[in-house]
Amino acid sequence: MKENERSLFSFWNYLIFFLFTSFVVSCSFLLFFAGMDISETEVRGNAIRTFANIVFLSGLFCLFDGIRRKYTVERPVKRILEATRRITQGDLKTRIHSIHGPNSRNEFDIIIEHFNQMARELSGIETLRSDFIANVSHELKTPLAVIQNYSTMLQDPALPEDKRMEYAKTLTSASQRLSDLITNILRLSKLENQQIFPEIQRYNLGRQLSECLLGFESTWEEKELELDTNIEEDISVEADAELLTLVWNNLISNAMKFTEPHGKITVSLAADDGWAVVKVSDTGCGMSPEVGRHIFEKFYQGDESHMTQGNGLGLALVKRVIDIVGGEIRVESELGKGSTFLVKLSIS
Predict the structure, then answer these.
(1) Domain assignment of residue 183, yes or no
(2) What is the DSSP string of 293-313?
(3) Which segments constitute the HAMP domain (predicted)?
(4) Residue 282 in contact with residue 259, Cβ under 8 Å?
(5) So what's the pLDDT on residue 309?
(6) pLDDT at residue 2, as a whole number
(7) Cα 290 to the chain's mean position, in Å?
(8) Cα 2 to the chain's mean position, in Å?
(9) Is residue 281 a contact partner of residue 345, using CB atoms and an 8 Å limit?
(10) Close Cβ partners of 164 (under 8 Å, ≥ 6 residues apart)
(11) 216 and 89, same structural domain?
(12) What is the DSSP letter of 277?
């Protein structure tokens, strides 16, 4: 809808200036001519001329004020309104140029700066949303295609029993992967929208790590992995135990997934200057510096050979949980020589 153009000359503005000017001039004349002997004829003549001057000056002041408002208020407001209209129509690339230079900024420049910052944030969120939807769609299609194809093949009455069992196991694996994907998406959504509130309690971190490791006993035995643990006792932290269990399970699971049979997994816990430091190391494929920079992003998978074993959400969940509990996480890795994930949690 087209905005109505305002005139430089407003009747109400003119009336305000006229009343103000009349008041000032009347008071000035009363003070100036008080006690002076002036004839009534001269007073009448001067009154008419004075009234005419007041009318003229009021119009002049009103015009100057209209020009001032046009350039200092209405133009910036129109630019902001136009940009707002374009944003609401979906043009998230809209930006407003500053009105003044850095040394002569006013309130409109501050509003414009905040508007541009808002537009950049919205643009980034929209990009993330689009990428997220595209990635989720891709990740959902893969297990669904497996389920559809193998379900069709299972309907063959002449299918041998060994093949039938193999296909059934494949269906179970694909459905489990689909279930894990949906569960991780829901968890990540709740964490990012602050719908999960940490239940802080003090507990023994070493005991928790040991219990998480025992949950993967069948995996390391199946791959004949060497497990080296160096977990100090009596290290306690104040955090949400359930959320941190999610962290350790993801890190240990990744270490075992990316380590070839007969490889080595190392898990350590030590106190260092008020911090509990957890390290999960493996002798797997490792990663390049480029992969390491993106490893905590949603759906990012640096090693395509293991893509069927995950959905790229595990480390994104880990990073979000560590941020929520106020900890730190980083990865040290070298391509072909394994990786070490280091997590620091405050002991106090």
Answers:
(1) no
(2) HHTTSTT--S-GGGGGG--S-
(3) 71-127
(4) yes
(5) 47
(6) 47
(7) 22
(8) 34
(9) no
(10) 154
(11) no
(12) E
CATH number of the domain to which 211 belongs: 3.30.565.10
**Mean pLDDT (whole number) for 19-29:** 75
In this structure, the answer to whether residues 212 and 306 fall within a common structural domain is yes
217 and 318, same domain (yes or no): yes
Nearest-5° Cα angle at 338, 306 to 220: 65
Number of domains in the chain: 2
The first and second tokens of residue 242, run together, are 């359930």
Assess whether pLDDT exceeds 80 at residue 65. Answer: no
Both tokens assigned to 203? 């507990």
Do 103 and 236 share a domain, yes or no?
no
| Same structural domain, 107 and 233 | no
Domain boundary among 100, 119, 138: 119
- Report if residue 33 sits inside a domain: yes
pTM: 0.54
The label of the residue with tokens 């063959």 reads: 156
* pLDDT for the residue numbered 29: 66
Whether residue 257 contacts residue 296, with contact meaning beta carbons closer than 8 Å, is answered with no
Query: Within a domain: residue 37?
Result: yes
Do the strands 275-282 and 338-346 form a parallel or antiparallel pair, or are they unpaired?
Answer: antiparallel
| Average pLDDT value for the chain | 79
Strand order in the sheet with 264-272: 226-231, 264-272, 275-282, 338-346, 328-334
Reading the block at residue 100, the tokens are 């003044």
pLDDT for the residue numbered 36: 62
Which of 119, 143, 175 delimits the end of a domain? 119
Domain co-membership, 210 together with 322: yes
Domain annotation covers residue 171: no
Which pLDDT value is given to residue 128?
Answer: 60
The H-assigned helical ranges of the chain are 11-33, 40-69, 75-88, 107-154, 161-192, 205-214, 217-222, 241-257, 289-294, 314-324
Enclosing domain of residue 335: 203-346
